[in-house]
Amino acid sequence: MGRPADRGGKPSRRRSAGRPGAGTIAAFLAPGLVLFLLFVLAPILFAAYVGFFRWNGLGGPPTDFIGFENFTNLLQDKVFLGDLWRVGLLIAGSLVIQLPLAFGLAMLLHQRFPGRTVFRLLFFVPYVLAEAVTGVLFRLIFSERRGFADSLLAAVGIEANVGWLSDRTVVLIVVFGILTWKFFGFYMILYLAGRQNIPDELYEAAAIDGASDGQMFRRITLPLMGPTLRITVFLSIIGAVQLFDLVFVLTGGGPFHASETMAITMYEQGFQRNQIGYASALSIAMFAISFVFALFYQRFVLKRDLQGGLTGGGSNGGDR
Amino acid sequence: MPAVNTKRGNLLRNTGFYIAAFLTTAFVATPILFALLGGFKDNQQLRENALGLPNPWNTENYTDTLSSDVFWQQAVNSALIALATTFIVVAAAAMVAFVFARYAFRGREVLFMLFATGLMFPFAVAVLPLFIILRTMGLLDNPLGVILPQAAFGLPLTIVILRSFFRAIPGEVEEAAIIDGASPWRFFLTILLPMARPALATVSVLALVGSWNNYLLPLVVLNDSNLWTLPLGVDQFSGQYASDTAKVLAFVMMAMLPALLFYGFAERHLINGLTAGSTKG
Known about the structure:
The complex is a heterodimer.
Chain A: H1 22-50, E1 53-54, E2 64-65, H2 69-76, H3 78-110, H4 116-123, H5 125-128, H6 131-141, H7 148-155, H8 170-196, H9 200-208, H10 213-224, H11 226-241, H12 245-250, H13 262-272, H14 276-300
Antiparallel strand pairs in A: 1-2
Chain B: H1 7-12, H2 15-38, H3 43-48, H4 60-66, H5 69-102, H6 108-117, H7 123-136, H8 143-167, H9 171-179, H10 184-195, H11 197-213, H12 216-221, H13 230-240, H14 245-279
Helix pairs in contact in B: 2-14, 4-14, 5-8, 5-11, 8-11, 11-14, 13-14
């Protein structure tokens, strides 16, 4: 025991100059905790509560309790079910195209060749731009009546007579292409960092043992990049679930909901039609999907990699 | 032995590398070049000479943007909101991360888990109830209505990154400070924070970029166009001048420029932050 405390009559607690008491610790925690409770936790609890009411958000607190009706309506809502289907398609697309593309480019840029730093710098540029500004830019590129995309294709001899953003089947492909443009650099950077963490000695030792390049890739690179691969799959799925800015600015979810996301449906119901109760239920559904997925993923897929925090580095302030 | 790790890596080495790299460069750069060069064209050129260089180079769209009060107002709004958000989130998170990293106290693990779960809350989930809470607090059409929630949602990631950095600072540093009679506050402010400058730079860059690019929260909070940030302004401008594509492209380009310049300066911090944020537990 150090010297006994000279104040407060609690000789058992050590209070040298450097050991803070409970008051000091609380003071350090207070600003962050207040912010977090007020603006992160309270809204989510509030949404969970409001989700059980029919409420237009006006005239005092909600009173028209309707139990699970909002949630059962949600499961019959064609737009919401369509949102789920589209999220599934976008996730499938990123797992099959976007992430492998990023991985391949990371493997490429890991090699030493002149100019690779410049390429690395360049490929990351789209990620830095605001999603909303990107949305405006691509709205102009894919504009009807011979926009830039049409001119570009015409230059290589393709006359594409499609409404890029007005054709129900094409629009989702265009959205996916733009998402790939915007985000592959982010995943590439993560893969590069993961690859750089593998010690060269492993490859040297394997080479001495006569391993081929393909063997080294399968036996060293892939397994040791497992944690990074699993994290990027996670981030990409969570990012797809909460997708809003880019698509909202690009298409507003149209035509006829063909590019709509859950967050856009929530925005329309909540902010444009004042169906606050219903939109809250939708928020909670989004939350439940990401939360259950995150817990599941953390427990069964990431458990070997880390003991705790995951990030939503993807979009938005916290965004993201 | 050079770090060759795949069979294909070997074969591609010379030509393949550059073909892939240049194809990707074209993919990445084309849309941005379209904005940059399109801003120097007029609308007739955009129609008839979509792919070529501007001829003649027309600077009017850029000078219009640069001399427009609206653009500067929105840029200043974006900057002020980003700076305030960054200051608040970094200050509050550093304090929390400090006690998490350096002191054992009852409830520490529970509180840390609480913040860490915040990493899994998609912002879009909270925006509607947040709107109602902000309305009740009278923070709609108030920059604080954007700043405080942004800071709050930035806390989890910032705390996670700073905590692991603060943990790595050796205990002897603290013991020496204690022997010199420094209080926890003094140790925190005059010793720990200065030592943590690289980590603080990293989390600050993340917060700045996140705030600068945010769209959804300003969209629902800020009705008054005098308070709008650039992402809102660009969207609105493109609707207002829908028939004047060249003018919109110049505005889009100018709105992207600060982010591009900032990336040029702070590239290392940004990338360190993103990799640390995604891989550290």
